[in-house]
Amino acid sequence: MSLSNANAASPPDLTVSIVNTDNRALLENCLRSLFETTRARLQVIVVDNASADGSAAMVARAFPQVTLLQNETRAGFAANHNRALARGVGRYLCILNEDTRLLPHCLDTLIAFMDAQPEAGACGPRLWNGDGSLQRTANRFPTLWFGVFEALALNRLFPHNFILRHNIYADWDRTTTRAVDAVSGAALLARRAAVEQTGLLDPRFFIYSEEVDWCLRLHQRGWKIFHVADAQLIHYGGASTVTRASEKFHQIYWDSFLYYYRKHFGASAYWLVRACFETRMSLHRMKNNLTRARRTTVQ
Question: Is the whole model's pTM more than 0.85, yes or no?
Fold first, then answer.
């Protein structure tokens, strides 16, 4: 899937792609903050992912300046964003979660940064949680050891281990602008020329890991990725999946995670990480079965 022709006399500064699935209130909040905090010329495209909560009608009624694309059946995060980005004619392209609220001048600051940094292929803002705490986004690319630790749940059991701390730039407080490996897909602004070279998101990622893959492919083309500390937004986090079965999305997360390793590390690494994951899940199921057996015996 390629980008639309952007040879217009005066293209918009930014194309913003937002994918929404049954998050009408959050989407409305996001769009209002987008138009209230941004002075740049925008092309905003919302892909409504077969929502059943009136989201599409709200967009059509309250935001007539937005291009609304409606899915009859649900598709993945990457595929949906690609549908919008393919229509993008802006100088820059941005994927933005519907569960975000932009703080003043967030996108303007990102655009100004990209204008001043021709080597930058993409950038992302500093993210805050809904409770005002820092969201530690902008991480290094996963290593093989990170995949093993993640698959065995060691990063969760031992959150101060060196492998995880290295991955998340643990000693960096996110208050400074710097080059990083990857930024969060909750708000990622990319240079049009870089995307034309690299391609759009890989639709084989249903959701999760697609932005890390995108940033890696940009790096492989020689582009740099930056965390821009002065650009800020609130990311409520998980709202796009909270209404769906957690077990289902746990599996989708791991399908994407394992696909990333197969794609970028090869078959041997993929099977190693997959074996670690499946071993952990087998032990987890055995533990649950023993617990249920004990409860049955007691009853």
Answer: yes
